[in-house]
Design goal:
Residues 311-350 form a coiled coil. By secondary structure, the chain is an alpha/beta fold. The chain has helices at residues 55-73, 113-122, 132-142, 170-179, 192-197, 200-206, 228-239, 248-265, 269-276, 288-294, 297-300, 316-353, 363-377; strands spanning 41-49, 75-77, 83-91, 103-110, 152-159, 183-189, 211-214, 380-382. α4 (170-179) links the parallel β5 and β6 (183-189). α7 (228-239) packs antiparallel against α12 (316-353) and α8 crosses α9.
């Protein structure tokens, strides 16, 4: 059995407003969804075949995660940056119960980029039966999809075995997705012709999606840019602007942030640093600065023991002063990174032109092309 792991995206975080007069810092640690938000939304569910040994694709996903996030963060609709939510599944593993279709939801539709990164890096392959129809149906039924027609809702299912396996009829499942305005794209890991023969193209066609085929063993070419070193230095400075609240849980989530820096270091820490400087990266569920920006009462009215050490023992006005100073410092650093990112993008674009005709056939190439095309049809644009 082979395996495919695919990862996309990227993203803008959105947490619900805290409604209590005196907010508890336990509540914000559970992510909330703004049902009445005016911002457009992009929702993407990633269903990854974890049944075999396609480690090359897993490495591609890890290497390209933050690059994809950064591209999605450049999207706009009616001049507004969208909230981006990502869900992650693995399917085709024998250690998951057969009654559940040998699949597992690793992350719900969420704006928590670090959670998705964490789960991606934890995936381990194992032999099993790949039930594509079941995986798609589970994503349709058990994820919190937007009911707004103007939002973009996509499923990407990746694998390399016959699309028709399992007791769930993929034709009926794909038809159900169309009725709910959810587009299903299929990614076959192997020769395009073989994927057609194994019904991956038929699945995409029936769900009004795009059929993609990639070379999971293609090596990702990394172009070093003169701006990389300074971006990484600024990332270290940026990390010092985060202050966890909510006691042990908040501290754990801050530690998770640091761990994802370590995970990205072997692949794309520069891209991750750029993501952290964009609107796609917010952590109001554990970071005092982001929580204050979203609803200042969460911090100003908080109990002493739930505050970060830097705010303990301070009156409200002093808390506000410290938080706003930290917020301004973060904005300054993020702006510097964004400016360097523009210079870096221009440099890399110039270098790639020297490699004209060498466009790859890797995960990010396939997925970004599909997302751009489908988002554009729904009125989104991608800034240069």
């Amino acid at each position: 059995m082979k395996i495919l792991h695919f990862f996309v995206f990227g993203l803008l975080l959105s947490f619900g407003a805290v409604q209590a007069q005196t907010p508890s810092l336990t509540a914000p640690l559970v992510e909330k969804s703004r049902q009445q938000t005016a911002e457009p939304k992009i929702q993407i569910a990633l269903l990854l075949d974890a049944s075999g040994s396609m480690d090359g694709l897993i490495e591609q996903a890890k290497a390209q995660l933050w690059k994809i996030v950064n591209e999605l963060a450049r999207s706009r609709k009616d001049g507004k940056a969208p909230n981006i939510e990502l869900a992650l599944y693995e399917y085709g593993k024998d250690n998951h119960p057969s009654k559940n279709g040998y699949l597992l939801q690793l992350a719900p539709l969420t704006t928590d980029l670090d959670l998705v990164s964490e789960k991606l890096f934890e995936i381990r392959t194992n032999g099993g039966s790949e039930y594509c129809g079941w995986a798609i149906e589970d994503a349709l039924d058990n994820l919190n999809w937007s009911d707004r027609e103007e939002d973009l809702k996509l499923i990407f299912i990746a694998g390399n075995e016959r699309f028709t396996q399992g007791p769930k009829n993929y034709k009926k499942v794909c038809k159900a997705a169309v009725k709910r305005n959810i587009v299903v794209n299929t990614i076959f890991c192997g020769a395009c012709k073989q994927g057609v023969q194994l019904f991956w193209k038929d699945g995409a066609d029936r769900a009004e999606g795009k059929y993609l085929c990639i070379n999971q063993n293609e090596k990702i070419a990394h172009i070093e840019a003169p701006q990389d070193a300074e971006i990484l230095r600024l990332n270290d400075t940026l990390n010092r602007t985060y202050m966890s609240y909510g006691g042990r849980k908040g501290a754990e989530m801050k530690a998770r942030q640091k761990k994802q820096d370590v995970n990205a270091a072997a692949f794309s820490l520069t891209e991750r640093a750029i993501s952290k400087s964009s609107g796609a990266y917010k952590n109001s569920s554990w970071d005092a600065v982001d929580a204050y920006v979203e609803n200042e009462d969460v911090i100003l009215e908080a109990d002493e023991e739930e505050l970060p050490e830097e705010l303990q023992g301070l009156e409200k006005d002093k808390r506000k002063e410290v938080i706003e100073a930290k917020m301004k410092e973060r904005e300054r650093i993020q702006n510097e990174i964004q400016e360097l990112s523009k210079q870096r993008s221009a440099y890399i674009s110039k270098e790639r032109k020297k490699q004209a005709g060498q466009k790859g056939n890797s995960l990010d190439d396939a997925m970004l092309d599909a997302v751009r095309e489908q988002a554009t049809k729904e009125g989104f644009i991608f800034e240069k």
